[in-house]
Amino acid sequence: MVDTRCLSGVTIWLLTCLLLIISVTGLVEEIPMPKELEECYKFRTQNISITEFVSEDINIFCITQFLYSSTHLRPHHKVANESILYVQELMRQMFGESYNQRSRTRRRHKRQVVAIPDQPRIRQLIPPRRGLQPTSWLGQIPGLGEIPGLGRIPGPGLGRPQLLLPRRAGRRWVRREIRSLSRREWVDFVNRINQLKRTPVGLSNRYDALADAHRMAVPIAHNGPNFLGWHRLIIALLEQALGIAIPYWDCRLDFYMPRPTESIVWTDAFFGPGFGEVRSGPFANWVTPTGTPLIRNIGSAGSLINEDMVANVMSRVDINDVTEPSAGPFTFERIHNAPHVWIDGQMASSETTAYDPVFFVLHAFIDYLWSLFRHRQRLAGINPATAYPDSPDPRQGPGAQMIPFNYRCIYGYSEFLERRVIYARPPRCPFCGGYAQCLQGRCVSIAVPGIARGPGQEISRFTGGQGIAGPVFASPASDAGTASIGTKFQTDFHDSRNNRAKRHVQEVRKQHDLIASKDNSQINIPYQNTFELNGKSSIDLWAFVPVKIIFERPPQLRFKSYPIQNGNVSRTHDMFMPSTDPDTNQRQQALYKYCQVSGSGASKVYVQTDGIDYSGRYKDYAVVDERQAISSSMTYVGVKNPMDGTAEFYMNAYDSCGRVCRPQCLSSKGYKPCSGAFRVTSSFPMMYGLTYDDAIKRNWMNGGVLSTEMNSAEIPVVFICEVQKTWLWS
Q1: In terms of residue numbers, what domain contains 595?
Q2: CA–CA distance, 387 with 377 (Å, rounded to integer)
Q3: What is the rounded distance in angstroms from the CA atom of residue 47 to the CA atom of residue 564?
Q4: 3-state secondary structure of 652
């Protein structure tokens, strides 16, 4: 006779083992938060109330800091020697020009002979009394004759060999705001950019060679004092390659628009589309070295630079206060991160950002602000060329090498680089030019209504045609994908007009009637995701994890659906409003300003993953109903496919008002608070889908039949988005 006590013991033992298998060897399991990330959260939130600073600002800043400090953990795209040699040759040309300029102080020449860069057999006479030489192909496309939306500019025949003629040595570049340029000047600039893109350098091209230099310098050109000087140098090198000055993009003119995504700069007249793949405009059909097209998702996060950001930086004169690792919220690098995140796509990744030409005109603006700051230093008796900031990172010390250049970091602060250029001031009232208008004492970019409708829905009087045509030389492509991913820019600043967001309580209640009648949100704008992982772009490299969102209605919202009692309409509150919480005012956390409300109540909560031991980011959103006191939704986010090996990643979520959501992880005892860092393996049980469709069916299909209830055992992560009293990370 079998001892029932033994059977009972075996049963308990088997059940315990099964629970351990489920909780420990699950495909998506929690791991400790990386130490650098945890320390950043604690440092940035100490002695600061959650009612004073928006939590998403801190969240995205700390993620960036962690990705910078852990680049050695992830594979990276290799830069070819030919690209490095090309960049170094531009350096020799630029500094050789400086030597020739000093020589002319000792002797004079009637005529100067200048060799065309990388064209040793071609020499061009440039009269010393003239600066930039016009090119015969200005404004034209070989075989077409014009850039659609920019208009035809007369000139000699098409399809001739196109030479980029440098300006006379010693003459200073004059950089102007993009909207201050004539059509002819802007067309000249973008044509020359495209000429670099078409000119081979090894297996790459001249433009991508400069972008590759930025990619390989990410750890030493960011998150420290070398940021300003390194980027000043790379801008100067592009000018050397182009033969003309780079214009700058003062995005303050766009920030103060009611809808910055409708700015004329996001039409074919300037940068091309801001949503999805760039298929028209001057940079149409560009691809990165990994074969992915240019991608943008303007307004999905981040912010453009505004006057308050600039004023806070300019209120200092000590360079240590405005360079990393400053403890203050306003540094050049942090305000620069904001538009990178706002544009998204390649621009959101520090490793791929330079593959979008918008990178250079944005950094020219940051350099303009730095020039203003250096002027203030001189007025205070400080020599900006020698006032190099303190740096805890020896790679960014004043004597460290400025990779990949054979110069020291302090040389980026030299007077030589600054004196090469003159900045023309941006448009000011009443002289705003043809592409901006004077509103309330400041120049604001003109809008093109309809361009913020998303891919396939654009309405722009500047569109038409196929964009830049002709052969665009690209590096060998891997599998077709969407956008390049690496260490991502994160910003302390977020414009909550992005997607759908909310103003402060009083502003929301005062202006709700106007907003509700005209939905200004971007709830209808899709997000073009990115699929590059470890330098290769393919959706097959990704698996998809189901994520549930539980959303608490923010207390300041009002909707125009009123209760009626005894025939009387009560407009003091809407019918969806939950019972009054006496603690609401005490626990009202900081929200982004200038928010817009979706009259329907639909809103987005974004969820993103960043690889810890792989290079890649995925971002998607769930749509929640803000009318309800509590609502829930689902989304599915990409992580590295564990069939290719175990992967670690960090997952976070935030709503469009800047509230960071709390992660809860599935365990043997249900959901519990967790770090947000995970490991995904190919072990049992399977908590993900190899395809997006597979991930959805695992949640909702039972035996091939649609189920009435979701399989919660397949949802490893839940984010709770609620009004919080304390910092999430405390």
Answers
A1: 27-33+486-721
A2: 9
A3: 47
A4: strand
